[in-house]
Amino acid sequence: MSKNYDDLIKVVNGIGIVPVIVLNDPAKAVPLAKALIAGGIPCIEVTFRTAAAEASIKAINAEVPEMLLGAGTVITIEQAEKAIAAGAKFIVSPGLDENIVKWCQERDVPVFPGVCTASEVQKAVSLGLNILKFFPAEASGGVNMIKNLCGPFPQVKFMTTGGISPANLAEYAACPFVTAVGGSWMAKADLIEKEDWATITAMCREAVCAMNGFQFIHFGINTPSAEDASKAADCLSIFGMQKKVGNSSTFMNAEIEVMHSMFKGECGHIGFKCYNVERSINYLSNYGFTVDEETVKTDAKGKIKVAYLKQQVAGFAIHLVKA
Ligand code: 3PG
User: Fold this and answer.
1) Which site from 164, 210, 228, 260 is most exposed, i.e. has the minimal number of CB atoms within 10 Å?
2) Nearest alpha carbon, ligand 1 atom 4
3) 19: closest CA among 188, 195, 202, 193?
4) Confidence class of residue 82 from pLDDT cuts 50, 70 and 90?
5) Shortest CA distance to 17 belongs to which of 186, 141, 175?
6) Which of 79, 133, 184, 185 to mutate to test the pocket of ligand 1 (most atoms within 8 A of CB)?
7) pTM above 0.85?
């Protein structure tokens, strides 16, 4: 895989959501792109299902350069040529066409062909690809099918599209074999037609939160020493909480962590779970949060298990824990 491909995958993975868009009018492309970005999704796949695709890609490329811009439903080399000339940075196809894949690879253009069977995955792998579009996701067995496919093909990850909505988004978001989730639910044709940018932005925000899967897990309370922590814990046990003493902290049930030192945060910390700490850090960077690198702990695969953020909220540090 080329550096360009790897870099793009990192960005796509960090965003986690790829809106699949059908535009009938190129004049709507730029306001739509801005609405997606305002909702926390700086990525778009403009589909070649309409004559407006090429001009829409050109307009977004010129006016919204911060957008990660891709072309979708590319089923001919001619469309791929037009898409790239117009400024698309990646190509997505509903199926696996060796000629399109090779055309893209020769030009170092990241390409994501659609697959939904083991034979197609095998073919794509033989072409040197390991990030594939899983389409149509729901109709092909959804997350269960993905897990089955990743048995024989552990090197493969999927961008899943087709039938994904707020109702089933979390299942895909929690699946470790899913690089990103795509779909049209947050920017349906009627909303674009009505220029209802506010609703599109709100649906993007909701999707981004669901994709992160944030869930409050505990409050951390700082105390100066293990002795102070023990006193605090004993007081809390009056309220019926179960004490579990550890090396650096004492947990009271799962919700309160009494620290044995004045640890991170002026007052203490708040712990949140999320599906993918790297992705959530990327998302939170939009709001000015950065990682406190010295707190990062990784698993055997190098994925972040725990990380504190540098910025505090009302005197509380925040840490993210991989669900
Ligand atoms: C695609 O091309 O990826 C799909 O058409 C998007 O699927 P959806 O409209 O069901 O989200």
Assistant:
1) 228
2) 162
3) 188
4) very high
5) 186
6) 184
7) yes
